[in-house]
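Quarterly update from the structural biology core.
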Amino acid sequence: MGTEQRARRGAGAGRRLLSLLTASLVTLGAAVVLLTAAPPVEADPVERCTRRTGAIVAVDFGPWGGPVVRGCDTTPTTGYELLHTGGFTTEGTGHDGPAFICRIGSGGFAEGGKYPTPAEEDCVLTPRATAYWSYWTASPGRRKWTYSPLGAVSRTLKPGDVDAWVYGGTDIGGTKGRPTFTPDDVRAEGGDPPDPSDPAAPNVPAGSVDLPAATRWLADRLTNGQRVVDEGATEPNYPATTEVAYALASFDREDPTARRIARFLARPEHTEAYAYRSGKDEAPDATAAARLALLAEATDGDPRSFGGHDLLGDLLANVCRSGSDAPQPVPGCATEGDFRTTGQTEGQALAVIALLSGGVTPPAYSVQRLAQLQCEDGGFPSFLLLDGQVCESEPGTTALVALALQQAGGHTSVVTRARSSLKKSQFPTGAWPAASYSTPGSAHATGWVAQTLRALGDRGHADAGVSWLSRQQLPGGGFAFEEGTLDPLLYATTTAVMAGAKSDLVLLTTEEPEPPTTPPTDPPTTTPPTGPPAGEGPDLKKGSAYLASRLAQGRYYESSPRFADFGMTIDGAYALAATGHDNATLRNIVDFLDKGGEDGTGRDLDAWTRIGTKHAGGGFIGKAAVLAEAVGRDPRDFGGQDLIAALARGVCPAATPADPRKCAAKGNYTYANSVFSQSLGVIAQIRAGESAAATEPITYLKSLQDPSTGSWPSLIGEKSDPDVDSTAMAAMTVDLLPDPASQAAVDKALAWLASQQLPDGGFPGASGNSVNSAALAIQGLSLDSAKYGGHLAKARKFLASQQNKDGGFNVVKGGQPGSDVRASAQAVGGATGISFGVLTRDLSGTSPEPIPSPSAKPGGPPSAPTIITTGEDRGGTGSPGGPAGGTGGSLAATGARVAALAAAAAALVLGGWGAIHTARRRRDTTGGQA
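Predicted structure, tokenized:
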């Protein structure tokens, strides 16, 4: 809801659209300057967002000589909403409507004009994969951008999230075309208002910690890369080992050494040697248990199951309910609220943070115990003092307690006093002392305080602390405890690294919340088909019910309100045809498409295929034709059009250099920019008995296969990497050709597919360990199920592991959980294993129902808006209900992924397990039930 002009490019950023290569060379660098701009009236000022409140979106207008403009929403829901409430305007494509983000504008640049301009991109069809708005995300604590596996409307935001939109292009894996700025460059730095009497931050030169050098120094201190062993000792120094892991993970959340340390400490013998020294069934050392819990949370482990112990449960079970003055005092309890055996403020604070970061609310009296320790100067002591004891504050302890109380909430006045105390104790050099009575600056204390003040919004003071740290770093990369000494120490270096990485224990360990899934929907009443043995794969009956329940008016999916997503609708129809679990709903979809059904804007199937116009798309036409063929309709009279004749007219006689999207080469179908689209057209023509007419398209499709690996790329006419989805689809297409050369090409493709399987049975896709890719790989490998039976069994189990309670499927393993319609359609159909080329479903026995009028009120809840990705066949619609249903598909350019989308959208998941013969050649398959 607000904007901030952030950085104007230097000379060399032209007004015209930059190529991906050029854009990658234009960096913020030293040319970045902050510009001011009045935010819209309805906007949240950027400073209202903090690292833990609200979310930030940044849009890079660099290709047009513009700045990176930021927007803030203090109550974010989805990435799609954040873009609009952050002060930006968007425009969609004529083909897919407003949900496909083709242009973006901002009042912070060029008086709100939207880019690219109409001269650069007409926004009729999907933009080129080398020139589109790609979508990037960074969760709290992440220092690198991730190419979003979800559409923007599917991405459920958390406080502290950062989104970026960059114009240009990328590859399937998002390794190219990344934003030229980092997440930290655009992250929010706001916070609660400081005390007006607080001193200003020291005026010191800017500086940064050499994090690679510091983390290398730390890693070199480890024995066997997994533990710290002090000189002359034989047993690990467990506290130091955890500190090293925190530091490494703060620099790189995926750091393999940090995860190796976590695995080492999660061995029961080490967990118990550190945290359960009194016995595995006794109360743990609370400080040690908290450190291990934080380590698990920082490395994506489970603190509820670490080294054979529930660390969080054990912490909760050992909170003191009385003190040493009780009639029967509990050992280790000085007063109510203490965690047993801590004795030190650090342990109490670490336990509170560990519980909160693990999603557990600590007892109120444990948090209050921390707040009550505050000294008169606003700081906190290092020991859990009792009434009447002298209170001497220490900056490092004060910082840790303030961080814990800020996370717990409800102690604003206490935290404000602590902030003031820390700022008043900062030296003019930017450093903090180890204790209130010390005079030299301490790297250990400065690291702790800089972390906390940055988290609380005091960026200037934190930056001054990091500046001082940068001047104290020793040649080998480490830090001494205090200035004037030259012996590098672990404890000083670990906190300095975390401060230099602009991280802190809360940011590093907060668990990402799991969005709710849609309540299960009872499947339609149909004759249950015979399915695969229980436990061998996903529940296709529940999956089919989920897909049926997501339809608007029981007929189509929407990409935005009242705007039908015909491509996704056909994908859902393929899945239902594959399983046979709901032929009545399948009949309704087919009738809607065939009988001129219109969405709420008056669009019918022709408006999507663009048949009869100069933008007629071979992939769109082929997709509709194959559905007609699969359910026994006439593709020469479907939706009032002869789709087979239209395909023949759409075969390119030659490349069209002036409009490369139209024809990449002779034999390409018009505007079929992906291997998926080309394959669909070929399958449609072959199934219609037009193999001769398809000769040139077949030749062109086969020419795209890599002769050395057997794989196919995702995109046509643009360079792209080998792709599981596209290779599976092309293999299903070429398998329809009986000649030995074609069969040999299929064999080679299947061998390549099998080589791509991951240990857990999944397959790599643009978004990671992809449900979509696994489903398509199953379809491809099922062409030779006798040979690849083991791969198929593992892949089906992988899909089962990604199915949610509502019957739908996640997009990727380890990504944002929650059911997604596109992923679900592909998983349901793909799990059956039937090739798209032979899918058949007999709809006899079903009855037609009236086609709803465009103005009719939908019979079910409306589908949520979807962001669709470049290169796709316009799928990606999600379920109603917003994020819980999951929308947007698995690609992430303008909201989904780009290159593979060409593959994913046309990834018409087809199938029918029961009809799969164990022999490879199944030309006579009629689409058995699953």
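Residues 43 and 805 are 38 Å apart (CA to CA).
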